[in-house]
Specification:
Helix content: 40-55%
Shape: globular
Number of domains: 3
Largest sheet: 2 strands, parallel
Radius of gyration: 23 Å
Structural class: mainly alpha
Oligomer: single chain
Strand content: 5-15%
Order of helices and strands: EHEHEEEEHHHHHHHHHH
Length: 267
């Protein structure tokens, strides 16, 4: 079994005491495993530091964590977890590039089945492309999408290639006609829709679920949070500003929902 230690860097600089604290936590985990008949494969331990501040990452790069007889250094590159790539700065750039490369390879394989090559007609070809290519490219987009124009352009180019594979039309075909014939949405609409659906699912799960807790409190609870025995201050209402690109995932998810409903319902 793989044993992960995940470190979320605080606003303070990396401190040597953090290494000792992590070693104690790892030791507790190993003892828990021994008591509960769970075996950890220490040789596969990966130590990760996440921070948007370069200063934190530089300070932690030489740290070493000792677990039993095994020593582990801080991972500097991206790490794959459940087909999702986590980079130290949580920009998800590596994840996006890897998913796009996988989607392009998948498109090359299914393009030979199109009508232009004597294969499938438009409708079944579209279903195949969406299932085998679009789903690969958009895996995890609910997390990384926050209006990045460079990623939007690359995804739109991929969708244009998909449309040509579906219809068999020439590269010189006008894009509006190509999109109409292939019935593929624009990249921005596709990304916004996936994030909106994810936000709605987060709203409908149990209140103790971590996904539900991502959303701003005054978005989830509205007036109840402010007037029925709440002890804390209402969280920021920045998500109501539709023209703003939010860094926090919860605010971005809330923003996608309020695009489709009246704000008075939530405030």
């Amino acid at each position: 079994m793989t044993h992960f230690i995940v470190v979320v860097a605080s606003p303070e600089d990396w401190k040597p005491a953090w290494s000792r604290q992590l070693e104690r936590i790892a030791g507790d985990a190993m003892r828990w495993g021994s008591n509960n008949k769970v075996e950890f494969e220490v040789s596969k331990t990966e130590v990760l530091v996440f921070s948007r501040r370069r200063k934190d990452l530089r300070a932690a790069k030489d740290a070493v964590i000792r677990i039993g007889e095994q020593t582990s250094a801080i991972e500097r590159g991206a790490t794959e977890w459940l087909d999702f790539w986590l980079d130290p700065k949580l920009s998800f750039k590596t994840h996006f590039e890897n998913r796009m490369a996988s989607a392009k390879r998948a498109l090359q394989r299914v393009a030979s089945l199109s009508r232009s090559n004597g294969g499938l007609s438009i409708n079944p070809m579209r279903r195949m492309v969406v299932a085998a290519v679009t789903s690969v490219a958009l895996y995890g987009s609910e997390i990384w999408w926050r209006g990045q124009q460079d990623r939007l352009k690359k995804l739109q180019l991929l969708l244009n290639s998909q449309a040509r594979a579906i219809t068999g039309l020439l590269r010189s075909t006008p894009l509006k006609f190509l999109q109409h014939e292939s019935c593929l949405p624009r990249a921005k609409d596709l990304l916004d829709n996936r994030q909106t659906r994810y936000a709605v699912r987060a709203l409908t799960v149990d209140g103790d679920h971590p996904t539900h807790q991502l959303l701003p409190a005054n978005f989830r609870l509205g007036e109840l949070y402010r007037h029925e025995g709440a002890t804390g201050q209402p969280s920021s209402t920045g998500w109501t500003r539709l023209e703003k690109t939010h860094r926090l995932l919860g605010d971005r998810l809330a923003q996608q929902v309020v695009k489709h409903v009246r704000l008075e319902v939530w405030l």
